[in-house]
Each structure stands twice: as structure tokens, then as C-alpha cells.
Amino acid sequence: MSRVFAYCRVSTADQTHENQILEMKTAGFQLEPRRIVAETVSGSTPALQRQGFRRLMDRLDWDDVLIVTKLDRLGRNAMDVRSTVEQLAEMNVRVHCLALGGVDLTSAAGRMTMAVIAAVAEFERDLLVERTQAGLSRARSDGKKLGRPSSLTPAQQQEVRHRRANGETLGRLAKEFRVSRSAIHRVSFSEAN
């Protein structure tokens, strides 16, 4: 016989798990208090790195059912959610997400739903990269200098180049100008502005 477990997660201590538990009961799931795992941890922490979720994984067995109210309870990242659901599917644990109409994410329809979600996440990531690249190109064409500003003034940079050409060490110059050796190294090989 299948056992039903609930996983509830909130991000901050001033939030409560009660709404998630109520939502699961309203959906018709009979939840035993000992099979409710609730924790307060950021969604950006992968599920398998969360203390409560790891304990839950140790308790789950073949044919058990895991209920979550929303996919973001399992993780903020689509790839993490997918990986977690796949691991649960390998254990023959069914994962029901109430926000997706209670679909079992390990079923054929659930796997299709997860594939669509992953494709949308990848599409959004690609759009972000494209927008970032377009913005950088536009800034370059407008003559803006990109990157972190130099910690040395143009006069200091000229002095560093001159002293490096005369054999002064990176370490000595870094110490004198109170910057890293790599900053001195970059200036040594850059052209004067």
C-alpha cells in the first residue's frame, strides 16, 4: 500500500508551512503528521542538499507518493527540479504537484510537463544571454569602456609600465601601489590610454 508524504518548504522563518498543508488536505490527501516534512530553507539550495529533504529521501520507499503544492517547493531551478524528480522516479516514488493539477510528475504526462518547463527555462536563459550580449555590443559601439574600473590612475599606470620595462618586480609594485600582482600584470601589458 502506498504511503503519502508531504514536503513543505518556506524561505524565511516568518513564513509558515500551514497554508501548504491545508492546500494538500483540501485537495483530498490524507496526511499523517509524521509523514509531513516541513523546512525553512532557500529555494536556491538544491533539494538534495537540504537537510529535511535528505531525511525525507531516506524515508521514502517503493510506491510511495510525495505531494508538493508547487514545483518551486522542490527548487527554483528547473534543472534541479528535474534532477530531483528523476531520482524519485528511479525509486518508483510518484511526485504530485498540486499547482499543475495534481499531475504525477513521474508519469508520461508529468515527464512531458517537466520537459516543457525545462525547455521554457532554457529559452528564458538563452534570451537573457542574447539581451546581455546585445547590451554589451551597444555599449562598446557607444565607446563605453566595459569591465571594472582600474584601481590605478592613468599616471600610475604609466609609471608601472615604465618601471616594469626597467625590470621592477610585480610584487614590489603591487605592494607599493596597494593592488594585486595581477592588477600590475594587466597594466604592464596594456597599452597607454
Topology of this structure?
Blueprint: E1 4-10, H1 18-26, E2 36-40, H2 51-59, E3 65-68, H3 78-90, E4 94-97, E5 103-104, H4 108-141, H5 154-165, H6 170-177, H7 181-189
Helix pairs in contact: 5-7, 6-7
Protein model, in words:
This protein has 2 domains: 4-117, Resolvase, N-terminal catalytic domain (Rossmann fold, 3-Layer(aba) Sandwich); 154-189. 49% of the residues lie in helices and 11% in strands. The protein has 7 helices and 5 strands, in the order E-H-E-H-E-H-E-E-H-H-H-H. The chain has helices spanning 18-26, 51-59, 78-90, 108-141, 154-165, 170-177, 181-189; strands spanning 4-10, 36-40, 65-68, 94-97, 103-104. Strands 2-1-3-4-5 form a 5-stranded mixed sheet, sandwiched between helices. The longest helix has 34 residues, at 108-141. The N and C termini lie far apart (75 Å).
Quick structural gist:
The protein is α/β, with parallel strands linked by helices and 193 residues long. Helices cover 49% and strands 11% of the residues. The chain contains 7 helices and 5 strands.
| Span of the ends, CA to CA | 75 Å
Tally of helical segments: 7
CATH superfamily of the largest domain: Resolvase, N-terminal catalytic domain
Could you say which overall geometry the principal axes of the C-alpha atoms support? elongated
What do the pLDDT scores average to? Answer: 90
Question: Segments where pLDDT lies below 50 for 5+ residues?
Answer: none
Task: Kindly identify the CATH topology of the largest domain.
Answer: Rossmann fold
Beta content comes to: 5-15%
- CATH class (first level) name of the largest domain: Alpha Beta
Count of DSSP strands: 5
Major β-sheet strand ordering: 2-1-3-4-5
